[in-house]
Structures are given as C-alpha cells and as structure tokens.
Amino acid sequence: MTHQRLYINIDHVATLRQARRVSYPDPVMAARVCEDAGADGITAHLREDRRHIQDADVVALASQARTPFNLEMACTEEMTRLAERLRPHQVTLVPERREEVTTEGGLDLPQRGTAVERAASTLTDAGISVSLFLDPDPHQVEAAAGMIQVIDGFEINTDRYTRAEAQEAASELARIVECARLGASAGLAVYAGHGLSTRNVSAVAAIPEIEELNIGHALISRAVFVGLDAAIRELLAAIG
C-alpha cells in the first residue's frame, strides 16, 4: 500500500513572516522545498483577517505550485469569488471565527448546509474540486453525502484525537475510522488533518479509506530545529 497523499500546510511560514511584516520567509519558496522533499500537495488557509497567508501568497501559489494546491477558506462570497478567479486544484471549505486561535471544529452542515452547498456548487461549476472540513460525526458525514453532486470529499478533523490521552485517544480514533468508512461507502473521498505530527500520524495513516493527510503546524515547528526538508522526510517515514 502506498502512503496517503501528504499535503503540507504552509500557513505558519507566513505567520513568521507577518511577525515582522517583511518579505521573508516566503511561503512560495517553502512550498518548493516541500515539493522537492516529497510532499504531494500544498495547503494554505486564507483567513478573513489575513493573519498569516495573504492574497498575494494565494495568487502566487495558485500559479507557481508544482503540485496540487489546496486553498482552505471560509464559506463567504468574497472567498468564493477569489477561488473562482484563481482556480486552485482544490478548495476546502472550513468554518471560521475571527476570535479563534486556529480552526476550532468542523462545519455544521445541518445548520449551514444551504450556504455550504451553494458555495460548493459555484466552485464545482468553476472546475474546482471541493472538500468540506468536518468533525468525525456520522451525522455530518451523512449530510455531506447528500451533497455528493457538488463536493468530491471531506477532511476529517483529527484535533480531538491528537489532544487525547490513552483510552480517550482510542475512542477518538474509532470515531475517525467509522466516519472514514461511512464517507467512502457513500462515494466520497476521505482526507484527514489538524494537529497531526510524527508522534500521532501513524494510526491515522493506517486507515485505508483516508486518501490524503494535511499537516502544518507540527511540521513547521519541527523544521525550526532540523530544517523543512528533513522534517518532511521524517513525516513521510512516520506515515509509512
């Protein structure tokens, strides 16, 4: 079995740059290092408050990334228009609150399904693959399956699993497994990400239904000590 596709989220390269509002480190240059080290794709989240990734980064990544580019974004008209114009390989729709430090959970499709489906339909019509960021909740996955005409798949939020200890982690992993199987059986592509690192990724990578992993903060943090190339190769070894 080959490893799942590994997409590297380069948001926190931009976080470091924005701390000084200078031109370095450059996320596009980071993307090239990631690709050379074996990453299968690049992910970046253009947040509404532009706290790290900027519009110019997304424009550059959409045109210069040598592997598929996955744009994470809120389900808003502004972001939908931007994605229509840039046409990244994939868009992952995520919930967003300006007060949060990082994305706190998945989309609530029973509550926001109409708006999500509208945005997904627009993006699909533009030739963009659409994914939804969801908590490992069967009800959310079932709601996503009802949108299969306008989405290709969904990304399981692994945050609770990565924060859990021992027995609780096993329970959280079981929820991920259940939702991965449910989504795949419905004909959806299944991805996973949030909080994954070399310490905890192997169990998620062992789930056969999961096709793609998105990993960012832990990888960039490790790169501070060993370099981006070495950090990615460590991660690929952990994935197996």
What's the layout of helices and strands?
Layout: E1 5-9, H1 11-18, H2 27-37, E2 41-45, H3 55-64, E3 69-74, H4 77-86, E4 90-94, H5 109-125, E5 129-134, H6 138-145, E6 153-157, H7 159-163, H8 166-185, E7 189-193, H9 201-205, E8 210-215, H10 217-226, H11 228-239
Parallel strand pairs: 1-2, 1-8, 2-3, 3-4, 4-5, 5-6, 6-7, 7-8
Quickly describe the structure.
This protein has 240 residues and is α/β, with parallel strands linked by helices. It has eleven helices and eight strands. It starts with a strand and ends with a helix.
Notes on the structure:
- The protein is an alpha/beta fold and 240 residues long.
- The protein has helices at residues 11-18, 27-37, 55-64, 77-86, 109-125, 138-145, 159-163, 166-185, 201-205, 217-226, 228-239, and strands at residues 5-9, 41-45, 69-74, 90-94, 129-134, 153-157, 189-193, 210-215.
- The chain has one domain (5-239): TIM Barrel.
- Helix 2 (27-37) packs across helix 11, helix 6 packs parallel to helix 8 (166-185) and helix 10 packs across helix 11 (228-239).
- The radius of gyration is 17 Å and the shape is globular.
- 48% of the residues lie in helices and 18% in strands.
